[in-house]
Amino acid sequence: MSFFPLLLLLFPQFHPTATSSPSLFPCPARCQCYSDNEQNQQVHLICKWEQLNATNFQLARPDLVRTLTIKCPYHSPKVSTPPHSLFQGFRNLDRLELDRCLIDTVPDGLFAGLHQLYSLILKNANIADFPRDIFAHCPKLMTLDLSGNKLRIEPYSLRSLHDLIHLDLSDNDIGFLTNTLISLTKLKVITMNNNKITNIDFRRFPENLTDLSIRHNLVSTVHYVPASARNLKRLDLSGNRLEFVAGLSTGAVNVLPAELKHVDLSNNKLNYLHEFAFEHLSNLVLLDLKNNSLKEVKASSFRGSKNQVKLFLSENPLLCHCNHKWLMDAESKNISIGDLQAIQCSNILKHEKTMSLTLAHSRNQLLCKYSNMCEADCECCQKKECECRFECPPTCRCLRSEDVTSVRASHQSAK
């Protein structure tokens, strides 16, 4: 599930519609040049070069270039050593993309002169660190993509990007976060998929953050206090190692921020949800818990939202327990089960036997344990001696259907 379609509206990719460049701009070798539809004397360049070096950038009128995309060959062993101020002449550049161009050392002034740049993509370059002041040369950056590098921590140099809205640090080696991002007050979207983060402290993120994606990391612990993440609306933690979700009253560990609307916790190791785990999420509209280790889910865990919550629960080892009957009538609790027909449950006596939850319900196979019980509609149930009362023998484990129309028993040794 993608949480960030709004970025396509904020920062659309360039789609050329013309195939000729202005007469003042001879197109470089191994490049495609396109006229700008709005500014006839400006061009968009898409180049396929072996590496970044000064000879490729000897253009007649670099000031006419509005967007520049450079793609190096796949799996190329060539490593670039770009000079200081390589893009100095591109003073009107709006967007710069460098993809697959391996860089051994990033010069401090690599982006000197790019004062108008609002979008920078520098990915798959095997960069392990950035100079402290490298982004001070492009203070107007609104979106920055540093995915596919070898960063082990978020770069300290990000501190100078006070207009930054979207940051992508996916596919790096980041294991933990410092306080670098807190000062970026305009930052709303952070994507850090496929890293090595083990725990999350929401106090390390900027206050205005609305979207956070940390898919496929190693997160097992989340730390939250009510004063943090006050504007966070979408949280994607799919593919991590969370084992439980707690409620706000239990403390600060594995508690989710209160303002969330969309939450993806699929493909984790969840085996327990606190009874009031999501009660404080009054704006929740979507919760994905697919492919976890949940054997039981209680309706009380999901109450609290003022909206109807769309819930996904398939690919969990749920038991065919009578407590799951509420899933058949979830809409009465303001919950919509988005994948009800795909939910399977295991027989309580024979866990290897599974069936769809809806089929188990229709066949009266949702069972509960009992020590003593009365037949359905039995009038003498309150009396100590009642001929329609069932007592579970001491050596047995006894189960009944939810509507008390059938009972089962097995010897305790049959686990």
What does this structure look like?
The chain has a domain at 40-172 and 181-188: Ribonuclease Inhibitor (Leucine-rich repeat, LRR (right-handed beta-alpha superhelix)). 3% of the residues lie in helices and 24% in strands. The model is unreliable at 1-19 (pLDDT under 50). The chain has 415 residues and is an all-beta fold. The protein has a 14-stranded mixed sheet, with no helix packed on it. The radius of gyration is 29 Å and the shape is elongated. The chain has helices at residues 6-10, 357-362, and strands at 31-35, 43-48, 65-71, 79-80, 95-99, 102-103, 119-123, 143-145, 166-168, 189-191, 199-201, 211-213, 221-223, 234-236, 244-245, 262-264, 272-273, 286-288, 309-312, 318-319, 335-337, 344-346, 354-356, 367-369, 372-374, 389-391, 396-401, 407-411. The chain contains 2 helices and 28 strands. It is found in: Cell membrane. Keywords: Cell membrane, Disulfide bond, Ion channel, Ion transport, Leucine-rich repeat, Membrane, Repeat, Signal, Transmembrane, Transmembrane helix, Transport. It comes from Caenorhabditis nigoni. Residues 1-19 form the signal peptide. One of its GO terms (cellular component) is plasma membrane.
